[in-house]
């Protein structure tokens, strides 16, 4: 049984079994449990309400533009993640015991990964789009359409679903007497692959995730905003809406800030599993996971506060502020 489970850390999420009381005696598990439940509950409540408002406003209240299409899809990605958070909160409250069955185990793993992939790819697409608007304003005015944003978003969703399919295959329920754990395991495939092969697959999957969904997007986004900064420095003004640009930059920065620690810990674990003491590793993973999950409720807050002074925030309703956040001063013709 000890070889049937491998750490899902390489996929960007810490070991669910780490919250089992007998797993690590040197850690204040009750404090970690309380911190996790509090953080995840706040993320769930704020994220569900906030992203629900974003979906309602960009999907039903506003005219379809490229900007609203981007943020509609970003809101859907975060909303779907927050929708399944109560299952994970229950698991943490039950010390890692999973009472929801095998199908929901697979769905939960899949939605976590889907949120990661779609969010970062959408942020990359948004950054490239904004860079094109600044660098080639005339071309973008004639070619930017909500239809093209919808097509690109659909491709991103399809690619992200395909990328997350290994998690559907390998996520399963492991049973220990009266305890059931939702984890990544090769048990269902042990007639085809052995433990060593499975470990290599998971490590390769983790490294690929880091490169494709953190490192490369980070480089693309950095280059895009570097070009924008160069253009602004030369012209002394920002073509298009400065508020929208500020909102996108803040959203991208917060994404990478929230996910950086979790990826760093995963890389350390792959490089040398015994580098950190276990109680330190567990504490840092809990903090890293809280940060990564919190990113899913952060975007609506950014949309409300970016480019607004506090007097405006107090005077206006949140739906109004969200709607005005997605309006650009110079929006090209859209289909």
TrEMBL record:
InterPro entries: Formyl_rcpt-rel, GPCR_Rhodpsn, GPCR_Rhodpsn_7TM. GO terms for molecular function: G protein-coupled receptor activity. One of its GO terms (cellular component) is membrane. It is found in: Membrane. SUPFAM superfamilies: Family A G protein-coupled receptor-like. Residues 50-303 form the G-protein coupled receptors family 1 profile domain. It holds the Pfam family 7tm_1. This is C3a anaphylatoxin chemotactic receptor-like. It comes from Xenopus tropicalis (Western clawed frog). The gene is LOC116412268.
